[in-house]
């Protein structure tokens, strides 16, 4: 059996990675794509580092269980299906889902630290970096964190200034040089989506 092609998608928080991923899956068909999101591999909240105000900082590479992520990605690469639990960031209003992920011809790895871990980077056959202006990333973060994580505006703004932005400058933006393709997402990414999906369709059909 042909080994799956593993794609890494990264970029700053709120850059549009997840939307690009959803559009890519639509273009290729769900039967052809496995999606493994780093968002479901954060360590339990009591194991997270805290800043000087005692607020958990999820925007550090060590906030993730990288070993478990690598093991699961390796299973998918070898043709095994996996089952994981959704991570809800301690949002009591959400019940974590059980997520079944099948091994498919294309495996997409998505998350802000996708390029940070050497063992993951070595598995990637195609590396995509989605970027957007900071004001757009902030507005998207406000909307997402209110809806998905139950954070109020002051909490989102604090985390963006003290956690998100420093982490982006140190751990994410420098890895843009590792990307095979940089995807600007100020207005839309339609052209880049068409190019990437066309390339991947050819890989799937081989």
User: What top-tier CATH class fits best?
Assistant: Alpha Beta
Sketch the major β-sheet.
5 strands, parallel
Helix content: 25-40%
Elements, N to C (H/E): EHEHEEEHEHHEH
Strand order of the largest sheet: 2-5-1-6-7
- How many DSSP-defined strands? 7
Structural class: alpha/beta
Task: Say which CATH homologous superfamily is assigned.
Answer: P-loop containing nucleotide triphosphate hydrolases
User: What best-fitting shape do the alpha-carbon axes yield?
Assistant: globular
How would you describe this structure in keywords?
single chain, 5-stranded parallel beta sheet, globular, 17% strand, 6 helices, 206 residues
Give the arrangement of secondary structure elements.
Blueprint: E1 5-11, H1 17-28, E2 33-37, H2 66-77, E3 82-85, E4 98-101, E5 106-110, H3 118-121, E6 126-131, H4 134-149, H5 153-172, E7 181-184, H6 190-205
Parallel strand pairs: 1-5, 1-6, 2-5, 6-7
Antiparallel strand pairs: 3-4
Helix pairs in contact: 1-6, 4-5
């Amino acid at each position: 059996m042909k080994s799956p092609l593993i794609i890494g998608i990264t970029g700053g928080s709120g850059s549009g990675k997840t939307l690009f991923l959803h559009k890519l899956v639509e273009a290729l068909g769900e039967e052809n794509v496995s999606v493994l999101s780093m968002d479901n591999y954060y360590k339990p909240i009591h194991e997270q580092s805290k800043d000087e105000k005692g607020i958990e900082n999820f925007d550090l590479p060590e906030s993730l269980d990288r070993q478990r992520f690598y093991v699961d990605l390796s299973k998918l690469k070898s043709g095994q299906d996996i089952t994981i639990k959704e991570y809800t960031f301690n949002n009591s209003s959400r019940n974590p889902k059980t997520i079944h992920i099948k091994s498919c011809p294309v495996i997409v790895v998505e998350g802000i630290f996708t390029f940070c871990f050497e063992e993951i980077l070595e598995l990637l056959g195609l590396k995509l970096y989605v970027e957007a202006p900071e004001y757009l990333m902030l507005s998207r973060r406000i909307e997402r964190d209110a809806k998905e994580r139950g954070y109020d505006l002051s909490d989102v703004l604090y985390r963006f200034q003290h956690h998100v932005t420093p982490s982006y400058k140190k751990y994410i933006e420098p890895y843009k040089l590792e990307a095979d393709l940089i995807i600007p997402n100020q207005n839309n990414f339609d052209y880049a989506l068409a190019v990437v999906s066309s390339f991947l369709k050819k890989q799937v059909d081989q």
